[in-house]
Every structure is written in C-alpha cells, then in structure tokens.
Amino acid sequence: MFDRLSDLNRRAFLDGVKTLSPAVPATFSWGLVTGIAMAKSVLSVPQALGMSLAVYAGSSQLAVLPLFAAKLPLWTILLTAAMVNLRFVIFSAGLAPHFAYLPLHRRLVLGYFNGDIIYLMFQKRNFPTGYQPGKEAFFWGMAATSWSSWQVSSIVGILLASLFPDNWGLELAGTLALIPLIVSAIATRSTLAAVAVASVIALLTLDLPYRLSLPLAVAAALLAGTFADIMAEKMGAGRKTTGAKSPAPRLTETEPLNPSLDIKQPDLDKAVASPKNTGRAR
Fold this sequence. Notes:
Layout: H1 7-20, H2 24-39, H3 45-55, H4 58-69, H5 74-84, H6 87-99, H7 104-113, H8 116-124, H9 135-159, H10 170-184, H11 189-204, H12 213-241, H13 265-273, H14 275-281
Helix pairs in contact: 1-9, 2-4, 2-9, 2-10, 3-9, 4-5, 11-12
C-alpha cells in the first residue's frame, strides 16, 4: 500500500511520522498506564483488549474503570465517557475545513484516529484549508505512529500488568513527557492566553463529577484564544488607521511538501551564470 502512494504522498507520510516521533515516549507511557489499569480492574483480558482497540481514548478509559467496579448503570458510564471525550468534537470541527472534500466514511475514519497530540501538531503546521496534495498523507503519518505506539503499549500493559508495581509512577512520567510538547506549541499570545485560562479552569473544576473539568477547560481555552485574536485584530486595525507601521509578517511553514518550491543552490548558480541572465544582472 505504501508503494502505491505517489512520491509526494510518501514524503508527506514520512514527514508525519517524523513530526510525531518526539511524542511517542509520552504516548507509550500513557498507553502502558491505561493497559495496566484496565488489567487490574474488573475487566477481563479480552474485555480490556477490546476497549483498547474500540475506544482508543486513555482519559475516558481511565475515567470509566471505577464506574465499572462500582457496578453503576450503563447510562452513567456512557455519559462519563461522553463528557471526557467532548473535546474531540472540537478537534473534529477544527479539522473539518481541511478534509470536508472527503466522503463521509473517510472522514469518520479520520475522526477515530484523531487525538490531542495529532490535532495539536497538525494545526501547528498552519496548512491552508481545502484540498492540498500531501496534507492527508501527513495526517496519516502522524495517526499511524500515534495509534500503533498506543496500542502496543496498552496491550503490553494488559498482558504484563502483574510485572509492573503500582508505585512506579508511570502516569506522572507520561504527564511530564507531554509538557515540552505543549510548551513548544505556544507560539502566539492567543495560544498563551488559551493555555493559561484552560489551566486555571481545570484546577478550579478538578473535583467536578464525570470529569467535567476537561470539556470546561477546552471550552474556556477556545473562548480565551478567540477573544485574544479579536483584540489583536482590533489593535492591528487601530495601528493602521493611525499610520503606524505594522510589523513584518512572520513566515510560517504552510506546506513543506511542495516540489515546485524545492529549488537547490546549484540550480540558482546555473540560472545566474547563464548568458540570458548576465545582462539583466548588470
């Protein structure tokens, strides 16, 4: 299947793998913790394996395990999982302008493989919306890397749970590994405002039931980021009306996979040295 891809899509896929590779240790740690927790809960090994493959969402998997142990009604378990996973609705809405041209079944598959780190790194590339060669392959490179590392670590945790003591602190290690990724994504003031507000809301609502702190923090982050963008636009418009010089636009890496932009230095040297361009250079 990989060989049937075009050269551009192969390079895009490998670029996605390379982009997500720094997050593999954090993903592996979280998957290992989740697998161990499921194996040591009331779930059987086949049930734990099925949950890992079907749900593919560590936060909701950990959230519902105590509810299974307490033998609460099924609607309570489903409601808790829905509240924890509500942020994926926002992530899907963010990806919709990029993949709206795809048929419904392919968009549903993309939604299953989407995740927190994948969405963060995809948006960090600042791709233009709509169809663009290599963009979907880049997403699949990240998705395949994240999904495979999660499932391998989760299955290892399920099958070898008895070998891992409870006091190893793997959950903390996974959290610490995620911090550098989050910090590296803070590139603008609006992002900084969103992270700050989300952190405060998450701490204030930590004791709410059904893990409501997660969707509340995500919603607060979106509002804070949107408000910061609006204020920045108004301040920029005010500077233009007063005649002040606007700052130079910052270059962003929108599409590193466009072969038409792959110009090498020897090509430039030949172009400058050609007789046609000699008179122009003078």
